[in-house]
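(Protein data)
===
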Amino acid sequence: MHKLLLVIITLLMALPSYAQNKVQKVYQNMNPGVVELHVEALAKPVEAQVNYKVNTGNSLGSGALVSNNGRILTAAHVVERATKIEVAFANGFKTSGHVVWVAPLVDLAMIQVAEMPKDGYKVLKLAKKNSYKVGEQVVVIGAPYGVSHSLSVGYLSGIRDKAEIPLNKLKPRFLQTDAAINQGNSGGPMFNMDGEIIGIVSHILSQSG
């Protein structure tokens, strides 16, 4: 009886350590596939009574490397009005990028880098649509407030499937998480514990903004 109790206590004590090591492993393995995007873009037009003025501005976002030839998945709102994109890899390598396609209705975009680093990168894998469920642990990697390659951990809180968008046959799926997300996380990947991308960060719901 005492030996059984000792084994149970030992297992319970090991559980938090196991979970922590699992998160660490996902971060270490997948972080080389997360990039930081420094974007110069046209601001949205500001209407005046007589004159029409267009401003430019800088923004920061994240992205996920999804192919060996330098295709990066990100959020549409990060790059849709971009005039210049600098892509910074986790190993410090920097290059330029350009938009390949953009889908504002689902807030997704693909960019292509001009040059790939020789090493130190990771091509990330997309999860299958029905391979994840509400309640499972998720990991988000991005650059909140410019703090590069920051990790936040939470749970998949909700899955919201929307009606098909007319003409393009897209069926949007929005995922909700309680993992911390802030400015700079936009476009970054959300992973399941197998290190597969289940979503791209779009926006936050916040009363404080």
Observations:
- The two ends are 56 Å apart (CA to CA).
- The first helix runs from residue 2 to 30.
